[in-house]
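Quick one, T. Sequence first:
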Amino acid sequence: MFDYKKVVRIFQTTFDVKIALPKHTPFFMNILEALLLLCLLIVISAFVSCSELALASARKIKLQVMAKDGGDTRALDVLNMQQQPGSFITVVQIGLNAVAILAGIVGEAAVRPYFGGLLENAGSWGSTAASLLTFALVTGSFILIADLMPKRMAMTHPEAVAVRIVRPMMFLIFILKPVVWIFDGMANAIFKLFKISTVRQEQLTSEDIYAVVDAGAQAGVLKQQEHYLIENIFDMQARTVTSTMSTREYIAYFDKNDGSDTVLAIMSEKPHNKFLVCDGDLERVIGYIESHTLLTLFLKEKDVRLTDKRVLRKALFIPDTLSLYDVLETFKTSGEDFAVVVNEYALVVGVVTLKDVMSIVMGELVNTEEEPQIIRRTEDTWLVDGATPLADVMRALDIEEFPNSENYETIAGFMMYSLRKIPKRTDFLVYAGYKFEIIDTENLKIDQLLVSKQGEDVVSR
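Structure tokens:
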């Protein structure tokens, strides 16, 4: 039979208060009633624990999708609670602490005497054993049922759990509003004193998106090509036009005074879709022509001048500092798909087409006719074109980063920056466990490298 007076004495000792006990009380509790009360406390504690983790870990993006596409207004309530979590945290702590104290009181006053009665013939250690059994029963039940299980469920399905418990939690906040206001106010005052922000920061960075994409690829949600496609889209803002343009030495152009025989010979030798037309040299570009338009006129007329307005089009000039995203926007607003790239001294450094820009995004989907820049020879060796962008090398070799990469954009630039000299054949350096050796140069330019797996970094030569 439950000793009510003993419970009151424990309560008095715990909270340092005095309560006048009646001489006779009708309140009695047997072991079954005590266990039922403990079960109720476990359920309350499980609800509070589950609410705490679910509301805290529910992802903002998924909640926004649930609210916008699914029309679930409970998701908006969760978002609002995440923005101002003070009241919610206060209710959680009040609930957990109150339940823990009550469970201890019930266990000590009702369950321990029951075990004590069972072990009354055990001698002097019977009372100690009864206390230990009570502690193990109550604590084990709370750890397993009121803590581990609900929290694991909340971690597995945080958004689904959050939208289901947010309304009951809002009701508890309303019921306990005076107490919540006091504790929340004191906590806010302390945070303000130490100048600590209590507003949840949900700023999404490109690194966050990369992490989500990588997680999707590892989980098999995204195919490898889709993974590369998304990464390449974000690379467009970081990479400049010089990383994908055709450099100056590869530009095929006509002089405005070239005759039809010269033009046809150049077009036969270098079959491009577009050719620049210059007044003497590349520094005096007057426009460009499209091959099919010029050839059509050649079929109709034997002698066509390159300055003819029917074939000559105005060239679009862009600075070499533009990102690929900016180039794409420029093509969109101008209606062009071909541009001349100039540096700060107004010197032509290359040309770029819409296909060049899209090749960064689509990769091999638009480069099926071109030789790949990275060719794997064996399990541990690669042939790499000197003009290969760093991002492609990093992806192929699984390298996290290159040192001071803001100073160069290609693997050739990395070699020149690291060697600190004009490169020549057989020059090499080792970085990130790979040996980068120059095997071919052309006009002081690194044309091709041999990359092989090595040990730790060594000094270059």
